[in-house]
Design goal:
The structure holds 2 protein chains of 2 kinds. Chain A is mostly helical. In chain A, 71% of the residues lie in helices and 1% in strands. Chain A has a two-stranded antiparallel sheet. In chain A, helix 1 packs across helix 14, helix 3 packs antiparallel against helix 11 and helix 8 packs antiparallel against helix 11. Chain B folds into 2 domains: 58 residues; 204 residues, MetI-like (MetI-like fold, Orthogonal Bundle), CATH 1.10.3720. Chain B contains 12 helices and no strands. The radius of gyration of chain B is 23 Å and the shape is globular. Classes of the chains: A mainly alpha, B mainly alpha. At the A-B interface, helix 1, helix 4, helix 5, helix 6 and helix 8 of A face helix 1, helix 3, helix 4, helix 5 and helix 6 of B.
Chain lengths: 313, 276
């Protein structure tokens, strides 16, 4: 049905047309408000990803040529998966991610419970505690590289005072201690983040509920395990998810602290990608790696989003 | 009982002291690095008593002031990223809060997913694409790509602030025949202004703290402060006091913003999903 606008409509029809147009505009209005941000983001995400997809099927080293050099099919994917670095990086990333997330959440929870004692002076303490989280990860990298410095850094010195042996090449220079040292730097930055959010969540648990559990003879541990933690399940899941993903994407700290070394003992997926694509300029291979990583990350994000945020938004 | 709880309190304070020492100590130690005489940097045992010197701060920010243009670049990139993000994020947040939009949940979850995506995965295609269209090394390239972080974050946080504003006033204005844009600009916007300011300040911190994008997309002329600081490691003898001075300058603005936004920290860090 089309409206003929070239001749005047009867009054009633004109009103109906206007109403229809208005309601149509009203229905479209929210989408018009959302569209610009979605379109820009789609362009910023989808365009590069498809570009990477195309490149992943070509041999292309940008130092040799400004354009792709030859179609290799799935060759780059095979090379990425079978190459020596990928599996090592994946393992390192998983160790870093799982240990970092677990330690930060557990210590964060412990600190949150301490803050919950509501002693005088806790409020400024909380404001100071969050400071590490405000610092850029790359700057945390500078700070820890300074503190890890083999000759005269404060951390090796403290360890030596405590009679704990330090590797001859320093904490970042030994394959055994390098990855844990990165975990430690990340823990310093993000444990306060976990603590502050858990603290805020625990404050929301009504006192009566805890009192009731106590009166029923539940121990402090049982109260925590069966009453308080279930009541803050959502923030717990949110923080765990966020830390897991951010640790999985670790890049800045590795760049500053170890550059993947010694050997490949601290190569993470993020750093491997940077090394392949933006240091060695193997664009084809790096694009294949990008897609493998995007697929892995997407599985995690989808799982998290379905379990944690299925009722959000 | 009283004695026991007093012991418990003492223990709690002791634990709190240790925790603050662990988490605030390194920050103080870093700030001290910026004002240390160079010969005390790696002294064994560590030196706490020294005559403060402004030499490193002068070298980095006054004369010759190697890092001053980088500080300016950091500011330009972060401010422009927030400025571009606001007019895109606020309307989206408003619509997602107020209307029955089809697929609203999916849009919100997609935004959340973006916040957890690895920035480095996009960097290689961005780098190649930006080289092709000649945008490599420009502020524009960095500001545009920062939007992949600032927009999703701002939409989430702003939506939580718009959710807090009661709809009665808007409905009354609608009944009186005001157009939607009038309602949004004249009624909602003034009411959520504090929320917009809080969101913008957090978004500023996120953009300011992002190092991966400028690392790849900036040129020597447009590099941000942390990237410039990274340059000190490339030269033979690392001048640690200069790194200290530059890094402390990169570290202070976010710290001050968080102190200022104290009440909103939990909300900001959870993208508005926990009110705190």
């Amino acid at each position: 049905m089309s409206l003929r606008l070239d001749r005047p409509l009867p009054v009633s029809a004109r009103l109906a047309w206007r109403a229809a147009l208005l309601s149509r505009r009203r229905r479209l209005f929210p989408y018009l408000l959302i569209a610009p941000s979605v379109v820009l983001l789609l362009l910023l995400i989808a365009f590069p990803l498809f570009f990477a997809l195309k490149n992943s099927f070509y041999f292309w080293n940008m130092q040799m040529s400004p354009m792709p050099l030859g179609f290799v099919g799935l060759g780059n994917y095979g090379m990425a998966l079978h190459g020596p670095v990928f599996m090592v990086s994946l393992m390192n990333t998983l160790v870093l991610t799982v240990s970092g997330t677990a330690l930060e959440v557990v210590f964060g929870l412990a600190i949150a419970l301490l803050l919950c004692r509501e002693l005088p002076g806790m409020s400024p303490a909380r404001a100071i505690l969050i400071m590490p989280t405000t610092i850029a990860p790359i700057v945390v990298g500078f700070l820890f590289r300074y503190m890890y410095q083999p000759d005269g850094g404060i951390i090796p010195w403290l360890l030596s005072v405590a009679h704990i042996p330090v590797p001859a090449r320093g904490l970042l220079g030994s394959p055994i201690t390098a990855l844990p040292s990165i975990v430690l730097a990340d823990m310093w930055e993000w444990t306060p983040f976990c603590a502050i959010i858990f603290y805020a969540a625990l404050l929301g648990v009504p006192h009566e509920v805890i009192e009731a559990a106590r009166l029923d003879g539940a121990s402090a541990w049982a109260t925590l395990r069966h009453v308080r933690l279930p009541l803050i399940a959502r923030p717990l899941a949110f923080v765990t998810m966020l830390r897991f993903m951010q640790l999985f994407n670790t890049f800045d700290l590795v760049l500053v602290l170890t550059r993947g070394g010694p050997g490949s003992s601290t190569f993470t997926l993020g750093y491997m990608l940077y090394q392949q694509g933006l240091v060695d300029f193997n664009i084809g291979l790096a694009s294949a790696m990008t897609w493998i990583i995007v697929l892995i990350v997407n599985i995690f994000i989808t799982l998290f989003v379905f379990f944690v945020f299925k009722d959000a938004g | 009982m009283a004695v026991k709880s007093r012991t418990a309190d003492t223990l709690a304070y002791l634990a709190l002291g240790v925790i603050l020492l662990i988490f605030a100590g390194p920050i103080v130690w870093f700030i001290l690095l910026a004002i240390r005489p160079a010969q005390t940097v790696f002294a064994i045992p560590p030196v706490l008593h020294f005559t403060p010197t402004l030499e490193a701060i002068e070298a980095t920010f006054v004369h010759p002031g190697t890092n001053l243009p980088q500080l300016f670049n950091s500011l330009v990139v972060a401010v422009c990223a927030v400025a571009l993000n606001l007019p895109l994020a606020f309307p989206a947040a408003y619509a997602l809060s107020r209307f029955q939009v089809r697929g609203r949940k999916n849009i919100m979850l997609w935004y959340l997913g973006l916040l957890m995506a690895p920035p480095i995965a996009f960097l290689i295609p961005y780098f190649v694409l930006m080289s092709h269209i000649g945008l490599n090394g420009t502020y524009l390239a960095m500001v545009l790509i920062m939007q992949t972080i600032t927009i999703p974050f701002s939409v989430w946080l702003m939506k939580s602030f718009v959710d807090d504003v009661p709809t009665e006033l808007e409905e009354a204005a609608r009944v009186d025949g005001a157009a939607w844009h009038t309602v949004i600009l004249r009624i909602t916007l003034p009411l959520v202004r504090p929320g917009l300011i809080v969101t913008s300040m957090f978004a500023f911190v996120f953009a300011w703290n992002n190092a991966a994008f400028p690392l790849v997309l900036s040129s020597q002329r447009t590099e941000t402060l942390p990237i410039g600081t990274l340059g000190y490691f490339a030269t033979a003898g690392v001048t640690w006091t200069y790194i200290g001075a530059a890094a402390v300058a990169a570290m202070l603005p976010p710290m001050l913003i968080f102190l200022f936004l104290d009440r909103y920290v939990v909300r900001g860090l959870t993208f508005g999903s926990i009110k705190g």
